[in-house]
């Protein structure tokens, strides 16, 4: 079977992947998406109006996007935004929390920055803000924090995985990509 051929996903048809910036949410979601043909919903793409992260979308618009997409039969929602993730949980079959250490997240964010050629003042400032924001994941208490994600993870009653390292995430993917 080709890697691009949709097949039954053993994780279900509606998944949420949450975690800090740089934890590997997009990679994990896209890998599952490619293997099983389930569309990925990037909460970053919904939250920001452009790829340079200069303007936030109106919260009402984001909530409308969530409501219109969560009724679909298949999706993988991924992001850090706990207040938006929570809106998906009543239809979520599987929740994955990528709870990786700061050094791993920081190195991932740095690698993305190093691969970027645009060093405009705006992006330099955005990168610095992202590093600070991601580094504060464990001290903030809002829905986008470690504490916020812990609360969502604890109240979710469906299938759930709490992954603590790249090795655990890789093993998780290997186990479920091999099925089908």
The residue fraction in helices comes out at 40-55%
Rg: 16 Å
Average pLDDT taken over every residue = 89
CA-based shape: globular
Structural class: alpha/beta
Distance between the termini: 9 Å
This entry's quaternary arrangement is single chain
Q: Within the largest sheet, what's the order of strands? A: 2-3-1-4-5
Low-confidence stretches: 1-5
Biggest beta sheet summary: 5 strands, parallel
Percent strand: 5-15%
- The number of E-state strands comes to 5
Order of helices and strands: EHEHHEHEHHHEH
By DSSP (H or I, 4+ residues per run), the number of helices equals: 8
What does this 3D model show about the protein?
The protein is an alpha/beta fold. It contains 8 helices and 5 strands; from the N terminus they run E-H-E-H-H-E-H-E-H-H-H-E-H. Strands 2-3-1-4-5 form a 5-stranded parallel β-sheet, sandwiched between helices. Helix 1 runs parallel beside helix 8 and helix 5 packs antiparallel against helix 6. It is globular, with a radius of gyration of 16 Å. The N terminus is likely disordered.
Topology:
Elements lengths: L13 E6 L5 H12 L3 E3 H5 L11 H12 L4 E5 L2 H7 L5 E5 L3 H13 L6 H15 L10 H10 L3 E5 L2 H12 L3
Parallel strand pairs: 1-3, 1-4, 2-3, 4-5
Question: What's this model, at a glance?
Answer:
This protein is an alpha/beta fold and 180 residues long.
